[in-house]
Fold each of these.
Amino acid sequence: MICQRCQNEASVHLTERVGGKRQELHLCAGCARKAGLVLPESAPDLGLESVVQSLIVQNVGELVGELAELACPDCGTRYMDYRTDGRLGCPQDYRVFSKGLLPSLQRFHGATRHVGKTARLRPAAVHRLRLRSQLREAVAREDYEAAARLRDQIRLKDTHA
């Protein structure tokens, strides 16, 4: 397209309906600025990663960057795992991911404070979750001796539970 004012290449294209008729205006960046339009300094980045990131920010908010780095110390669940699966790993996740969960809880339930029954605390279960998380980490770093020791501890806890 060619600018309708100066015959340079048009980079701004406006379409509007006036009285039921469609009117198009094609301008170069210089003529668009002279007409009072505010233009971005650079073209938008349309790479897949930037498009996905902008969609996440629009739908989840700015907290994602901060929350994406978080992982539960007990069960190893990451916030982004929760965002993709919709499942939390343990009760500790509610505290660890509170910044990201509170807006969702408010939207779903109309409140962020729990009213009703609560699970009884079981320290042995929390310890077992911590051991399983350590076992996954040991296997991931290929420390099989530590993994075998942790496996045995978990089995011992399971037989005494």
Amino acid sequence: MIKVHVPATSANLCIGYDCLGLALDLYNHFTFEKSDALEITGCDPQFQNEDNLVVVAFKRVCQYLKVDFPSFHLHIDAQIPVSSGLGSSASCLVAGIAGANAWFEANLDLQSMVTLATQLEGHPDNVAPAILGQASISYFYKDKVISTIVSCHGWHGLVMMPDYQVNTKKARKVIPSSIEHDKACLQVAHALTFMQALQNKDEDKLLASCMDYLHEPYRRQLIKEYDDIHQYCFERNFPMWISGSGPTMMAISIKEENIRNLYLWMKENYPNIQCHFVTIDQKGVSVDYE
């Protein structure tokens, strides 16, 4: 029996559209066992077939390794909410790749796994941190993905999940095709500052760098609670952002008290929004054998 554990992720991190991501200590668990036929349990019946993203990714590794696709029983224990902006789909792709790697004892290196997952996902900001852990910067170069791990720990976070969904295609359509040159320069400066501040636990610089020009000014209109929560956090000098394409939002702080107070404020003002305390996952995808 092979057990694969994949962390949730927060993609974009405000200023890193499609290239920055952060792994969180909320997990999906996947079990692979030998079986006479493909069997999938633990998920909605509509996903209990070969179109399941875990199976799709497993097959992609089979093609890459030039081996036959085996039969197995896949059981999914999902703790990451679906279509919430926390990398649920990415976790399935990563699980399929890691599961196949373990099944065939292929010893794929992490960067190859990131590349395979990105080829399926389309962009690396969710799959890279799910594989690598911590925070990561990733982009395509020629036919592979280049990833850099940014070591970070000690941050306390709160993910805030409204009780509705934001369609990813709609969220991409609201983004303009170009921005002004001066804003592009600021975007680069903010991204560089953000990653160093995250690593150095410099909350003041992290807050100052959380000013995006690529997607948040346009996607915020799709999340009706965004402006109020954003104002609360920034008035108290800690950052928050849209996780992925939303509607989930995330706030982080070095000071646990800030996050605890935000949680209490959310419960009072937005009781219908689910809130979860999180920290930064340190190791990414992991595999156990039984």
Amino acid sequence: MRALSVNWLHFVVVLVPAAIALAAYVQPLVPAKLLFLDPLVAATVTDNCCQTYLGIISNLGVFLWFITAATCLFAAYILFTTQTDRKAFEFALFAGLLTAWLALDDAFLFHENIAPKIGIPQNAVLLAIAGFAVAYLLRCWRVILSSDVVLFAFGLGFLFLSLVVDVAHPSTSNLHFVLEDGAKFIGICCWSIFHILTSAKLCRASYMKTG
């Protein structure tokens, strides 16, 4: 397990998305919630539809989900073909599949809109995601602890904070959205950077073994 110390990378990964979220909140041009909401949801709550800025923070988060999923799954393919480290392969595969699921759910509002319409309870989808996440942690904890565990903890912490804000204090105010979706955006950034860097490190280590 690596030493638990905060470095400059952690500050950058947290402060950059935090600054973006704060800028979206204080800008005077449009209501901040229109920038944080999903674009389809934002389009339904504004009379000025449809503008390219609707849901821009949400879209950035979705882009990061998909980039991370693609990176991890490509790393899983490389690690599978080299067959040098099974734990590394499982980490990349589980992380890629979980992140892809989160990306699709976030992009298409699956657990909120699609699932209930086809007879799947929203809570069932959320429990399935939570179960997959727990399986990922149980299967891959050794790789996680040997990597930048502080960055991983930041990712989980901010994503959990976003969930707590949403459940404990539901609101439609601009401040609520910057707290909930701002925390989510920071969490996605931390999650993405952790998994991209870890996947690159594992592939590099595999190359060194086979080279």
